[in-house]
Amino acid sequence: MNKIVGKEYFSDRVVKFEVEAPLIARSRQAGHFVIVRVGKKGERVPYTIASADPQKGTITLVIQRVGKSSEKLCQLEVGDYITDMVGPLGKATHIEKFGTVVCAGGGVGVAPMLPIIEAMKQAGNRVISVLAARSKDLIILEDQVRSHSDEVIIMTDDGSYGEKGLITQGVEKVILREKVDLCVTIGPAIMMKFVSELTRKYEVPTIASLNTIMVDGTGMCGACRVTVGGKTRFVCIDGPEFDAHQVDFDEMLMRLKAYN
Fold first, then answer.
1. Which CATH architecture has domain 2-89?
2. What is the predicted pLDDT for the residue at 260?
3. Predicted TM-score of the model (pTM)
4. Do 2-89 and 100-259 come out as alike in CATH topology?
5. CATH code assigned to 100-259
6. Per-domain residue ranges of the chain
7. What is the SS3 assignment for the chain?
C-alpha cells in the first residue's frame, strides 16, 4: 500500500497527489507510468508519473475525474493509502541534445509533459513549452514548466489567459520564427492529431504520447492497440510514445469513442 502525503486541487476536476513510492521514485524516468488500484476490487488504471523525488521517496500523479475509478482515487485524502501501485512501466522518453525542442501540452497532458521538459532542458536543449487549455483555470503546473523552459507560450480557447487560440497556433508561431528540431506533444488525441498534421507540413520530427488510450497497462487487454507505420502496436508496452507522423490518429479517435 502507498500512503498519500500531499494533495492539491488544480480545479474541481483535476487533483495532484504526492504518494510514497521510494522504489519507483528512484528508478522512474521521463515517460514512465504506474498502474494504480483503489480498493481490493478496484479497476487497474494507468497514470503517467508527473514527477518524482528520490530523496523523499515520493512520486507525483495528476488525476482528472472522468469516471468511477478516478473519482474513488480523487476522494482519498492525505494519510489515506492507495491499495496497489506498480511501476515504473512503459518505455522511457528518448532524451538527447536535439537543439530546439517544442513541448506542446494540452490540459492534463501538461503533467506527463513536465518530466520530459525537465529532462530535455537538462540535456542541453533550448526548450519552448506551449501550454493550452479551454480557459485560465485549466492551465496546470505553469510555474514548474517555466522553471525548466527557455520560453512558455500559453494558449486558451476563450482568451482568458495568454493568447486566444488553439495550441497549433502557438506551435506554428515558433516554427515560423526559428528552426525547431523536435516537437513533443501530449494531450487529447484530437489535439495531438492536429499538432502532428501541422509539424508534418513543416517537416518537424514529432513525438506523441498516446497514454490517453491505455487501460490495462500490461498489454493483456488489447484496448490500447494502435496502428503506427501500418503495424499494430500496444501503447502500454511498445510506447507510450511514438513517431506522431506514423500514428493513425483517425483510427485511434474512432476507437476512443467506444468509451463514450
1. Beta Barrel (2.40)
2. 62
3. 0.85
4. no
5. 3.40.50.80
6. 2-89, 100-259
7. CEEEEEEEECCCCEEEEEEECHHHHHHCCCCCEEEEECCCCCCCEEEECCEEECCCCEEEEEEECCCHHHHHHHCCCCCCEECEEEEEECCCCCCCCCCEEEEEEEHHHHHHHHHHHHHHHHCCCEEEEEEEECCHHHCCCHHHHHHCCCEEEEEECCCCCCEECCHHHHHHHHHHHCCCCEEEEECCHHHHHHHHHHHHHCCCCEEEECHHHCCCCCCCCCCCEEEECCEEEEHHHHCCEEEHHHECHHHHHHHHHHHC
